[in-house]
Design goal:
42% of the residues are buried. A five-stranded mixed β-sheet has the order 2-4-7-6-5, with helices on both faces. Strands 14-15-16-17-18 form a five-stranded parallel β-sheet, with helices on one face. It has a three-stranded antiparallel β-sheet with strand order 8-9-10. It contains 24 helices and 18 strands. Helix 1 packs antiparallel against helix 2, helix 8 packs antiparallel against helix 9 and helix 13 packs across helix 15 (308-314). The protein has 593 residues and is α/β, with parallel strands linked by helices. It has four domains: 7-161, DNA polymerase beta, N-terminal domain-like (DNA polymerase, domain 1); 167-256, Beta Polymerase, domain 2 (2-Layer Sandwich), CATH 3.30.460.10; 272-335, Beta Polymerase, domain 3; 345-589, Alpha-Beta Barrel (TIM Barrel). The protein binds one DNA strand of 29 nucleotides through helix 2, helix 4, helix 7, helix 9 and helix 14.
Length: 593
DNA sequence: GCCGTTTTCGGCCCGACTGTTTTCAGTCG
C-alpha cells in the first residue's frame, strides 16, 4: 500500500536530514546534497509521487541513486529506516528553530538541548519565553546580543506565520521607487538599481535587494541610514547594510565601486540557483566568479567588469535577461546562442479582457469606466484594438429572451461605437464577453445569445474544489463552443489566498492547440495567471497565449506590464502571444470577416 | 550524496557580517 507525501512534506524531511547531518558534523558535501534535493523538490512543478509512480525518481535533479532509494522506501512504507537512524537524538524542534533567521542547525540543536525543548509543538513559543526569561544568554558561547537577536527574529517569524509574508510585485516596486528617490539625492551615490527577485520580476517579493554605485561607500552608507522609515538596522558593514523598515519589510543594500558594477549586478540579481550553476560552469573553465569580477584560479588574476554584458561574454555566453535567470536551461541556451527573444511591453497591440460600466446586469462585478474612457486610454497606450468582455448577465435574474435582448443591444452599441470612434481613433473594438463555465461544463449563457459576440472568454469563478478529472473535463467542455477563444485566468490561483485548482494541463494544452484556443496570462497582480512556470510549459506545448489586463477601470489598463513580466519569466516571445498580432490576424483568429 | 562537452573518480560557488570561545564558526544571500 503506497503512502502519499506532498512535495512540501518531502522537502521538509530532506531538510531535516540535512540539518541532522550538519549537527553530527558529517561530510559537508553530503549535507549540501540533501539541501539541494530539498530545494529542488520544493520548487518542482510536478508531484514527486508522480515520478515515483513512473519509477523515475532519480530523474529529479539532485536526486541520485541513494536519495531515490530512500524516497522509494518512504512511499512504500511511510518511513525510512536510514532516516530514522540519522535523526536519532535530534529533537524535532530543530526543524522549527531553523526557520528562524539567524538560527542554523548547530545553533538550533544547542538551543533545543540546553533549553530542553524537544517536541515541535509550541517550540517557537517556548524558545521565545526562554529568551524573555534571559535563559539563552546563560548558555555557553551564547551572550546577551545573541539572545536579543533571536528574540527579534522570533517576533518577525511570528508575522510570517500569520501569512503577511511576501509582497506582490507592484507593492515592492513602489516601495523601491520611494527608496530610490531618497538615495538619488545623495552626492555620494551615482546610481541605484533594484536587484534580486525584484529585478527578476518575481510575482512576489520577500526582501527588497538593491545596489548603489559609489566611489565612497562609507559616506554613502551613512547617508542611507538617514532614510526616515527605518525601524532597525539589522546589520551594517563597509559594503552592505540590512535595514528593517517600519512596515517590517527588510531591505538589503549593497555598495559597489563603478569599476565592479557589472559583476556586482550579476552577483546580486541571482537567482541563487542561476549563480551556483554559473559558477560551476565557470570553474570548469578555470575561472572563479564573485561580485568583484572573474578570477583566473591559476594566476589569481582578477578581471573587473563595469557592465553585465561583458561579464557574460567573458564566459562565452550571450547576455541572459534577469527575468529568466532561474537555472531553467538559460545557461545552456546562452552557450548555444539559443536564448529566447523575450516579448516586450511595446509589442502589445491591444487588450482583450476589459470590463466596462456598460449596464449588462452581470453575474459578477461590473466595471467602473465607460467604453469611451477606456478607448481614450487605449489610444494613449498605442493600442490598435480592444475587446470588451464584461461578465455574462446573471442567470438567475434573466430568461433566454432577456439574454438575447441585452446582448443584441450591446452589439448595436459596439457597432455604433466602432463607426463613431473610428473618426477619432484608429482602434478596432471587439464585442466580447467573459462567460462562467458552470460546474457541469456548460456555459452560463444560452447558445442563441452567443451569436451576437465577436468572441468570448470562458472562466471558472465557482466550485473550485472538484477533482482533477472533473475539472479537466469541465474546462474542455467549456472551451468547446466555437465562439469561446480564450480561457480566462486559467489556474484560478490567487497569490497567498487560493491555490490553483487541480487539472490535467497537458490534456488542456493539447485541446487548445488542436482547436485554436488561447490561454490567458491575466495581469492582475494577485492573479498573474497563468503563472510563469506554466507559461513555459504551455509554450513548449505550442499553445498560443494572450496577455490581458482584466481591467475594471481605466487605470487598471496600466497593469498590462505585470502580465508581460510573467510572460517574460516563462520565456515567451512575441510570436507566442496573440495580442502582439495585427487587427487582421485577430479577426482571423476570431473567425470574423 | 550527486554528477559528467576535459572526469564514472574527484571534485563540489563565493564572500560579508556577527558574536564570542579574540581567531573563527555559524549563518546568510
Amino acid at each position: 500500500m503506497t503512502k502519499y507525501f506532498t512535495n512540501k512534506e518531502i522537502s521538509r524531511l530532506l531538510e531535516f536530514i540535512s540539518a541532522a547531518y550538519e549537527i553530527k558534523n558529517e561530510d559537508k558535501f553530503r549535507i549540501l546534497a540533501y539541501q539541494r534535493a530539498a530545494v529542488t523538490i520544493e520548487h518542482l512543478n510536478r508531484e514527486v509521487k508522480d515520478y515515483y509512480d513512473e519509477g523515475r525518481l532519480s530523474s529529479i535533479p539532485g536526486v541520485g541513486p541513494s536519495i531515490a532509494q530512500h524516497l522509494d522506501e518512504l512511499f512504500k512504507n511511510g518511513d525510512v529506516r536510514h532516516f530514522k537512524e540519522i535523526t536519532k537524538g535530534i529533537p524535532p524542534s530543530v526543524l522549527e528553530f531553523i526557520n528562524v533567521s539567524g538560527i542554523g542547525p548547530k545553533t538550533a540543536f544547542k538551543l533545543a538541548k540546553e533549553l530542553n525543548i524537544w517536541s515541535k509543538k509550541n517550540a517557537l513559543d517556548r524558545l521565545k519565553k526562554a529568551a524573555k526569561d534571559k535563559k539563552i544568554e546563560k548558555i555557553s558561547s551564547f551572550g546577551k546580543d545573541t539572545q536579543d537577536n533571536i528574540l527579534q527574529a522570533l517576533l518577525r517569524t511570528r508575522v510570517e506565520s500569520e501569512n503577511i509574508e511576501r509582497m506582490l510585485l507592484p507593492y515592492a516596486y513602489n516601495l523601491f521607487q520611494e527608496i530610490e528617490y531618497f538615495l538619488n539625492k545623495s552626492q555620494y551615490i551615482d546610481e541605484v538599481k533594484a536587484l534580486g527577485s525584484l529585478r527578476r520580476k518575481n510575482s512576489t517579493i520577500g526582501d527588497i535587494d538593491l545596489a548603489i554605485k559609489t566611489s565612497n561607500p562609507s559616506k554613502a552608507i551613512n547617508y542611507i541610514l538617514k532614510f526616515p522609515k527605518i525601524k532597525k538596522v539589522l546589520n551594517q558593514g563597509n559594503k552592505k547594510v540590512t535595514l528593517l523598515l517600519r512596515n517590517n519589510i527588510q531591505i538589503d543594500i549593497r555598495a559597489q565601486d563603478p569599476s565592479e558594477w557589472g559583476s556586482m549586478l550579476q552577483h546580486f540579481t541571482g537567482s541563487k540557483d542561476h549563480n551556483i550553476k554559473l559558477r560551476e560552469f565557470a570553474r570548469k573553465k578555470g575561472l572563479s566568479l564573485s561580485e568583484y569580477g572573474i578570477k583566473k584560479i591559476k594566476s589569481n588574476k582578477l578581471m573587473k567588469f563595469s557592465n553585465e554584458i561583458d561579464f557574460y561574454q567573458k564566459l562565452g555566453l550571450d547576455y541572459i535577461p534577469p527575468e529568466i535567470r532561474e537555472d531553467n536551461g538559460e545557461i545552456e541556451a546562452a552557450l548555444s546562442h539559443n536564448l529566447p527573444r523575450l516579448i516586450k511591453l511595446k509589442d502589445i497591440k491591444g487588450d482583450l479582457h476589459l470590463h466596462s460600466s456598460y449596464p449588462i446586469e452581470p453575474s459578477h462585478d461590473l466595471g467602473k469606466s465607460t467604453f469611451e474612457q477606456m478607448i481614450k486610454k487605449a489610444n494613449i497606450l498605442g493600442y490598435q484594438y480592444l475587446g470588451f468582455s464584461e461578465h455574462n448577465p446573471s442567470q438567475n435574474k434573466h430568461n433566454e429572451a432577456d439574454f438575447i435582448s441585452i446582448l443584441k443591444d450591446k452589439r448595436d452599441y459596439i457597432d455604433k461605437l466602432n463607426y463613431s470612434s473610428s473618426k477619432k481613433y484608429d482602434i478596432k473594438i471587439f464585442n466580447g464577453l467573459e462567460i462562467d463555465i458552470k460546474p457541469d461544463g456548460n456555459l452560463a449563457i444560452p447558445d442563441k445569445a452567443l451569436t451576437y459576440l465577436d468572441y468570448a472568454i470562458a472562466s471558472i469563478h465557482t466550485n473550485f474544489n472538484i477533482n482533477n478529472k472533473a475539472m479537466t473535463n469541465r474546462i474542455i467542455k467549456g472551451l468547446s463552443h466555437p465562439k469561446i477563444k480564450i480561457l480566462g485566468h486559467p489556474t484560478g490561483r490567487k497569490i497567498q489566498k487560493r491555490e490553483a485548482y487541480e487539472a490535467d494541463w497537458d490534456k488542456i494544452f493539447e485541446f487548445c492547440l488542436k482547436n485554436n484556443k488561447a490561454l490567458e496570462i491575466n495581469s492582475w497582480p494577485e492573479r498573474q495567471d497563468l503563472p510563469d512556470t506554466m507559461v513555459k510549459r504551455a509554450i513548449e506545448a505550442g499553445v498560443l497565449l494572450v496577455i490581458n489586463s482584466d481591467s475594471h477601470r481605466v487605470n487598471h489598463m496600466d497593469l498590462m506590464k505585470y502580465g508581460v513580466y510573467v510572460a517574460q519569466r516563462g520565456w515567451a516571445e512575441k510570436k507566442d502571444i496573440l495580442n502582439t498580432k495585427s487587427t487582421t490576424d485577430i479577426k482571423k483568429f476570431f473567425n470574423l470577416k
